[in-house]
């Protein structure tokens, strides 16, 4: 009776949502042994929510409500509480499921996890259970995983089966039912509100075609399965903490794929396994796969392995754990993308997709229980062999403690140990000071992942990648760092106040200087401009006298003079004093006269204005690219922006904005080319990102660019010209034809010519407004396309060009390497009073490319100087 009142209320609402609708559900009894019975004292999913699993898409709060009720009543399950809360305000929760005896000793079992990986410990592995971390639907519009969790949990708790009870004695399950509640709810709302009483199975139906942003991403639209490495979002930080707290032996990652496929489970394509992955990891992956094969064969479910998907990028849920003594397993279920959908394999309905995820959930537990001893031994052996590397990696961010602090936070999230220097070191042409440098020992438990973050691979066994081919973290943060380890260094534990520069700001009658080199100053600048302050930016460097002594200031230094801010002195001073108290580089000037460079009253200071930014979003735009720009300005710069969907642009007055950020061509928007051209001519700044966007702007006559042709395109053009010659000989034609190749290699040959995430060595003009705040001309840029621009014919308008030998890390064909050399990364095309900024690269890639994101920020605040 304890759930009766809840049931009555929820049934009333649930029945309103599902009345006279398509009727379907997952029949659990058909998925498990026919003789299994269930504990009648435990609630079924529909007892709590009034909705059967598979009847429609469940929302995150419904899943949590049921699992909480089940944990309250079951001796096999306890709620572990909230490990994160999304930016959308939704909780991420987890549960422990095991035998009652294990749950009674849960804290002791968790404490023992640290002893298993401690080489000095002599813990008895045979007495320890294996830990399985079960994670569902990190992509919200791949909902079969999360929708399977109510029935998976019900079976594990209510099934009266001796074999299952024995398995639970050997396994502790950390049950993570929804990794992306914001995306899950976005997709559930879409699907539940776009199906009729008679749902359409046509793949073109609205129910199966979400708008942008869709449910795959989180609140901002980011792919959380690419955020394990950088963990820029609360969901990822909480998930990482949960994993490292429990140190699982197996981590399961449930996804969906294209509707016309068959079920996939690991192992992936062998040639695309990261070379740092231990061989035994793949052996155990294959052994576990046999259990999935058996379970799916019993039900006649077709599947495939060792194709398409890989274990290379160490920043996804199924690959990340492979370097921590854990076996990561990826599952990909064909998606119905709604109620049901016609596919080349017949009608695929939502209950079927859920049922398959239940089957492999249960086969995983069976495998972990049977392989418990092997899994625990593998984990222990992994860490026993970890502390063998010698030396230290060194890193610093010159005059930007904010950037280095973020780098430290990322490393600590992976349980990577960091130390400070007690003696300055000169290595690889850089001086690493005790005041602003860190030392990262290679001799540590998580050395394997440290190597994965630091490596710069350029040669690969396989040149086709499911995701990016490189992710070198110190390059992403544009740190001065040692590529190779320094063998000797004097170090000490990293103190809590390392890089802390909080200070009290003295009063100055001259004014206040803000060092633009610190990544936190952009947010301060916006606040000052929003408060109406007169803020000026230096277009030349200088050495100024401050109350703290003489200091060097570079391009982009901000200057706020009391003489020019007489109407808002209290508000402006409050912002400056608060910034100094938070450690930002705000300095009180003691004289307008400088010892070198421009004086503080120089005309080389330009007055800045408050930016008003329009980000083009919605249909026809890339949800990922727009998400990166939104997140950067909203969370890092902490400023508002206006997001306008493409179909509203014709009726929007663009004169209200100073900047337009465009990530995709606007071919379907009538009259927009003329409006964009007028916007730029009148003084607006148009940020155009990506080769497709730039190509469209060129076609529309808004900008000019010359693409560097590939050898293949050149050959094709020459062939066409030769064919048109009246007297072209057969020999002439044959010389221009490519050699024959096997048809089976066609896909791979096309993939070899792609650029799937590489790091190129950019040369940035630090005197250019887009280069303000940089101290080093070398700037690593992340590249994901294979188009290359010639530098501008204006010698001052290519602020970032690649070096002649551009490739720093990742796979790039020889042909593309030659094209990249000395080509342009960013061109500024001045038009009238405004400018078009052509950026082939993505400076805010996945929110962790902290080194280049400053270029985009500079375009926002210094656009007038272009």
UniProtKB/TrEMBL annotation:
Coiled-coil positions: none
SMART domains: Zn_pept
SUPFAM superfamilies named among the record's database cross-references: Class I glutamine amidotransferase-like, Zn-dependent exopeptidases
Key words of the record: Carboxypeptidase, Hydrolase, Metalloprotease, Protease, Signal, Zinc
Compositionally biased tracts (Basic and acidic residues): 203-213
InterPro entries found in the cross-reference section: Class_I_gatase-like, Peptidase_M14
Protein name (Swiss-Prot/TrEMBL): Secreted protein containing N-terminal Zinc-dependent carboxypeptidase related domain
Organism listed in the record: Aequoribacter fuscus
Sequence segments annotated as region (Disordered): 185-218
Protein family per UniProt: Belongs to the peptidase M14 family.
Matching PROSITE patterns: PEPTIDASE_M14
GO terms of biological process kind: proteolysis
Cofactor(s) required, per the database record: Zn(2+)
One of the record's GO molecular function terms: metallocarboxypeptidase activity
Signal peptide per UniProt: 1-18
GO cellular component, one term: extracellular space
Domain Peptidase M14: 55-354
A UniProt-annotated Pfam family: Peptidase_M14
């Amino acid at each position: 009776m304890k759930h009766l009142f809840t049931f009555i209320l929820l049934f009333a609402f649930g029945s309103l949502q599902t009345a006279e609708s398509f009727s379907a559900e997952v029949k659990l009894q058909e998925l498990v042994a026919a003789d299994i019975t269930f504990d009648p004292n435990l609630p079924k999913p529909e007892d709590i929510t009034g909705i059967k699993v598979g009847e429609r898409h469940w929302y995150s709060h419904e899943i949590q409500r049921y699992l909480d009720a089940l944990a309250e009543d079951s001796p096999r399950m306890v709620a572990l509480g909230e490990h994160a809360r999304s930016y959308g305000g939704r909780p991420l929760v987890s549960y422990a499921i095991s035998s009652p005896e294990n749950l009674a000793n849960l804290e002791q079992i968790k404490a023992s996890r640290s002893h298993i990986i401690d080489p000095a410990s002599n813990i008895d592995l045979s007495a320890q259970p294996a830990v399985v971390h079960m994670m569902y639907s990190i992509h919200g519009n791949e909902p079969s995983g999360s929708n399977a969790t109510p029935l998976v949990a019900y079976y594990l708790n209510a099934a009266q089966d001796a074999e299952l009870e024995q398995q639970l004695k050997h396994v502790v399950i950390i049950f993570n039912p929804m990794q992306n509640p914001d995306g899950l709810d976005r997709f559930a709302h879409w699907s539940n509100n776009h199906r009729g009483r008679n749902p359409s199975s046509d793949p073109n139906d609205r129910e199966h075609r979400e708008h942008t942003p869709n449910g795959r991403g989180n609140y901002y639209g980011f792919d959380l399965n690419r955020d394990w490495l950088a963990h820029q979002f609360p969901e990822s930080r909480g998930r990482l903490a949960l994993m490292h707290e429990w140190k699982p032996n197996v981590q399961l990652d449930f996804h969906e794929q294209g509707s016309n496929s068959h079920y996939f489970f690991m192992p992936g394509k062998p040639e695309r396994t990261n070379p740092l992955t231990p061989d035994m990891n793949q052996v155990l992956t294959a052994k576990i796969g046999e259990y999935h094969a058996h379970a799916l064969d019993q039900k006649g479910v077709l599947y495939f392995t060792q194709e398409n998907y890989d274990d290379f990028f160490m920043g996804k849920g199924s690959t990340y754990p492979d370097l921590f003594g854990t076996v990561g397993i990826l599952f990909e279920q064909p998606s119905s993308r709604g109620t049901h959908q016609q596919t080349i394999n017949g009608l695929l309905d939502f209950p079927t997709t859920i049922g398959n995820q239940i089957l492999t959930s249960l086969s995983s537990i069976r495998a972990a229980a049977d392989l418990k001893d092997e899994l625990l031994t593998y984990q222990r052996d992994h860490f026993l062999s970890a502390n063998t590397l010698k030396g230290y990696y060194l890193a610093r961010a010159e005059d930007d403690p904010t950037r280095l602090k973020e780098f430290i936070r990322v490393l600590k999230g992976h349980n990577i140990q960091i130390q400070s220097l007690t003696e300055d070191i000169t290595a690889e042409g850089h001086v690493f000071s005790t005041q602003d440098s860190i030392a990262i020992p290679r001799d540590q438990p998580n050395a394997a992942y440290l190597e994965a973050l630091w490596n710069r691979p350029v040669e690969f066994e396989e040149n086709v990648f499911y995701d990016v081919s490189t992710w070198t973290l110190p390059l992403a943060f544009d740190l001065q760092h040692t590529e190779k380890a320094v063998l000797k260094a004097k170090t000490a534990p990293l103190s809590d106040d390392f890089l802390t520069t909080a200070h009290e700001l003295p009063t100055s009658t001259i004014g206040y200087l803000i060092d633009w080199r610190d990544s936190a100053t952009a947010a301060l600048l916006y606040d000052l401009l929003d408060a109406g302050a007169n803020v000026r930016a230096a277009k030349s460097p200088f050495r100024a006298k401050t109350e703290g002594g003489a200091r060097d200031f570079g391009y982009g230094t901000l200057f706020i003079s009391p003489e020019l801010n007489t109407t808002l002195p209290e508000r402006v001073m409050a912002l400056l004093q608060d910034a100094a108290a938070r450690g930002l580089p705000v300095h009180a000037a003691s004289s307008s006269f400088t010892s070198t460079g421009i004086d503080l009253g120089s005309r080389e200071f330009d007055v800045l204005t408050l930016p008003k930014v329009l980000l083009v979003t919605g249909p026809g735009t890339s949800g990922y690219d727009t998400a990166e720009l939104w997140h950067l300005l909203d969370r890092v710069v902490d400023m508002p922006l206006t997001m306008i969907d493409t179909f509203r642009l014709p009726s929007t007055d663009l004169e209200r904005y100073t900047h337009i950020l465009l990530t995709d061509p606007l071919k379907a928007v009538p009259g927009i080319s003329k409006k964009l051209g007028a916007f730029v001519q009148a003084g607006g700044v148009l940020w155009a990102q990506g080769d497709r966007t730039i190509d469209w702007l060129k076609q529309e006559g808004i900008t000019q660019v010359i693409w560097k042709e590939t050898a293949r395109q050149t050959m094709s053009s020459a062939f066409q010209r030769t064919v048109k010659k009246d007297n072209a000989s057969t020999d002439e034609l044959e010389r221009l034809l490519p050699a024959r190749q096997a048809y089976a290699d066609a896909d791979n040959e096309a993939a070899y010519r792609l650029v799937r995430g590489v790091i190129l060595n950019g040369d940035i003009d630090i005197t250019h407004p887009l280069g303000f705040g940089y101290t080093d001309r070398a700037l690593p840029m992340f590249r994901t396309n294979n188009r290359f621009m010639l530098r501008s014919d204006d010698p001052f308008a290519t602020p970032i060009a690649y070096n002649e030998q551009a490739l720093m890390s990742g796979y790039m064909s020889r042909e593309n390497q030659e094209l990249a050399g000395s080509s342009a990364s960013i061109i500024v095309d001045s038009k009238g009073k405004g400018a078009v900024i052509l950026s082939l690269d993505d400076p805010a890639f996945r929110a962790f490319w902290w080194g280049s994101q400053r270029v985009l920020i500079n375009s926002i605040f210094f656009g007038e100087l272009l």
